[in-house]
Amino acid sequence: MAQLEIREVSKHFGGVQALLRVSVDVPKGEILSVIGPNGAGKTTLVNCVNGVFHPEAGRILLDGTDLTHLSPPRIAALGIARTFQNIALFRGMTVLDNLMLGRHIHMKNGVFRSVLYWGPGRKEEIAHREVVEDIIDFLEIEAIRKQVVGSLPYGLQKRVELGRALALHPKILLLDEPMGGMNIEEKEDMARFILDVNDEWGTTIVLIEHDMGVVMDISQRVVVLDLGTKIAEGTPKEVKNNPLVIKAYLGAKAVA
Amino acid sequence: MINRECGVFQTTYRGDMALYPVPLAKASYGLLLLVLLALPLAADSHKMAIINLIGLASVGAIGLNILTGYTGQVSLGHGAFMMVGSYTAAILSARYGMPFWIGLPAGGAVAAAVGAFFGIPSLRIKGLYLAIATLAAQFIIEWCINHITWIGGGAQSSIYVPTPTFFGWEINNEYRRYFLVLPVCVLAYVAAQNLVRSRVGRAFIAIRDRDVAAEIIGVDIFKYKLLSFAVSSFYAGVAGALWTYYLKIANYEHFILSTSISYLAMIIIGGLGSVLGSVFGAVFITLLPIVLVYVVEGIARLFGFTYFTIADFLANLRLIIYGGLIILFLAIEPEGLYRMWGSIKRYFRLWPFSY
To answer: What is the Cα gyration radius of chain B?
Structure first.
């Protein structure tokens, strides 16, 4: 059984059919890429998985648990984390605090313990700080841990956002264009981090990306969406040579 | 507070996460506390009264800053929540003979419940629209206290409160009231500092900065918005109750809409999203009219006027200068006194060798 099952999901906005009976199975530990032209419904699909939108038809299951109508915080607690296409960090906070927020669902401190900041409350904060420091170490952002996020360059912000998602220790990581707007070095770094996360923690990764070089290199399987429907699915090689995909998205030149 | 943050290398996360990680900072706060404790030795009764007013305003301002500055929910009902605390304390003490140390937390608790109730609209509305919804809270609460005889006690809606005593020690002059106000202030300040640097406070800030992202990482927005309203109103309630024991009377006129607005002015001028800034703002807004009177009167006296010949003129001029200063202030330093404080500290960090 796949870890994440998306079954026949449909979603429309007014007259626009954003998704039409899309089914995707993601086995545990896989890196799956979702590609397609602008407006194909890639982000909508991710939004349905983590509860920002609720699909009109179809079901979404995580390890057999139905997520279809749960709220985003519940889905996060069940183990799905994501990053956004246009960075959605908490700009006024430091890198550390952003990552500590990633630990929110794993912490228990309520108002009284927070106010006291003593005994068990402080112990918990410190324990989670240690987890966060491991992630800071992993993403090589030690030097900026106390800087306010809003003042960081774009590439680093993307990395911090990945860190915040990792801090949730998710079973599934949804990355919406993690390399959009990056230069080649930043892309290479990000690709390395994605592969390492998958390798070290066995995290399942669903990736939306436009850079075909990256997609073909790091993903085990690729799903292609166009106008809200799935037009192809398979290994990068199969997809690359699929005439439907070439027509809808890649174009003849890209393959040649 | 007045230390330079350099030359200290933390070796434990516990040390790094301390409120004042530099030893000198700890010492300077200890010194500040000593100065505060010794303050009555240096001030006359009139000055003590002003200091007490600043203390009362600080508690309320810290509370509003938690809601508006940290959670990003604009509230025009802060005065009303103070009113709830004030009348709760007055009813408990005047009618049931409860001591102030029960009245204070009880006032906070009732205000927290009322505040959380009026926070419910914040689930659906934001920004200016929420401001209008909280404005409704201000008028509804004011109306209830004025028209429900059991609460307000009839025509004037005033409840006289007996002099608060602490195990036989009568709190009956400005010096003694100072030792009622100061501990509450210090507790309120430290509690707020702790809150905003830990799990709950981070969730508040997350909602302010990017609510969609907060939800995605598992922050239950509705719960934390209500919690923020509750905590903020708790502060308001305690401030209102303290005000009641201070004046020995609960009267709604102390907590009308203009009170709510002056608290908003305090946190905007002091610095949104800063506990210390709330205190700066409380000092500024409380002192400004008092200092202005002295200054304008002094200038008038230079030209040979006496206070009585210019009293009307003075009253109006004071309001004009007050408004003008606030506008000027917002234009020059929109991020408030706290930011200014930070700039000064940064300047002295490398002083006198700035390069």
So the answer is: 21
Q: What tokens were used for B71?
A: 């959670």
**CATH number for position B323:** 1.10.3470
Domain membership flag for residue B130: yes
* Sign, CA torsion A25/A31/A32/A38: positive
Q: How many CB atoms lie within 10 A of CB B275?
A: 27
Q: At what angle do helices A95-102 and A120-138 cross, to 10 degrees?
A: 110
The whole-number pLDDT of residue A222 equals 95
Nearest one of B68, B194, B190, B44 to B131, comparing CA atoms: B68
Q: Percentage of residues in chain B with pLDDT exceeding 90?
A: 62
- Name the interface residues of A facing B (CB cutoff 8 Å): 50, 52, 71-73, 76-77, 81-82, 84, 88-93, 97, 100-102, 104-105, 107, 109-111, 113-117, 121-122, 124-126, 129-130, 133, 164-165, 168
Question: Whole domain around residue B212: which residue ranges?
Answer: 44-350
Taking only the tens place, the pLDDT of each residue in A52-108 is 999 999 999 999 999 999 999 999 999 999 999 999 999 989 999 999 999 999 999
Q: Please classify residue B264 by burial: count the beta carbons closer than 10 Å to its beta carbon, then call 0-12 exposed, 13-18 middle and 19+ buried.
A: buried
Distances (CA, A) of B7 to A206, B4, B22: 45, 9, 9
What residue numbers bound the domain in which A117 lies?
4-255
| Pick from B217, B227, B231: CB nearest A102 | B217
Answer yes or no: are the C-beta atoms of B83 and B252 closer than 8 Å.
Answer: yes
Distance CA(A130)–CA(B112), nearest Å, equals 34
Local structure of residue A10 (DSSP, 8 states): E
Q: What is the DSSP letter of B213?
A: H
Mean pLDDT score, B29-48: 91
Half-sphere exposure of residue B201: CA atoms within 13 angstroms, side-chain side:
25
Cβ-defined contact of A72 to B216 (cutoff 8 Å)? yes
Cβ contact, residue pair A88, B227, below 8 Å: no
Helix or strand (DSSP H, E) at A107? none
Count of domains for chain A: 1
Helix or strand holding residue A7 (H, E): strand A4-13
Q: Residue B313 pLDDT more than 80?
A: no
Q: What is the pLDDT of residue B4?
A: 61
Contact B113, B51 (CB under 8 A): no
Residue type at A160 in one-letter notation? V
What CATH number does the domain containing A137 carry?
3.40.50.300
Select the residue of B19, B209, B218 nearest A104 (Cβ to Cβ).
B218
| Cα–Cα dist A189/A192, whole Å | 5
Q: Is B168 left (phi over 0), alpha (psi -120 to 50) or beta?
A: left
Taking CA–CA distances from B207, the nearest residue in chain A reads A90
How many angstroms separate the CA atoms of A120 and A112, rounded?
11
